[in-house]
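Quick illustration, no need to memorize.
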Amino acid sequence: MTGPAAHVGARAITEEAVEARVTALRRGPLASRLPRPGTADARNLRRWVVQLLTYEAVVEDAAAAMGLTAGQNRRRREFSLSAALGTGGVTAAVLASLPVATAVYDRVTAHITVPPSELRAYYDRNRDEHPAPYDESRPAIAQDLRRAAADRHFTLWLEHRHATTVTLHPGFEHPADPRHADATHRH
């Protein structure tokens, strides 16, 4: 048996769990796009999978603390590539793959609103995208801006929880961590 790749609070994310997820990805529809095993990019893939597993565990722990279950919310968030990049890759992956994540998202972002002055200012700045009168455009603008604000809030909330509860073990650091030789990923 191998050791843990990470800890989320007291919960261990095992190397077996990491390898199982990598194996599932290698058997999935995007397998041909994944790096060859044994390469630096393959090691970084494993590191990215650890990130995903730890973020999923953070969300699962938060859901349990909030009394939420996957059965309460079975919808998964659908993302276009640009929406996933705007939300943040790991956050988008968790929201797309973990049904309870949407329930946690809804709870964490329930208070998010966009002031009417911001809606009007957005409309005035983007008349080319909203040629209809303001009263007709306002509901769609409100929905888009609220979603963007909620996404930002949830991402920051999740990153904070991750930073305060997760310990990554050597060899499973973030792909951009300069302490390992394969650190080619940059933000």
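The longest helix spans residues 134-165.
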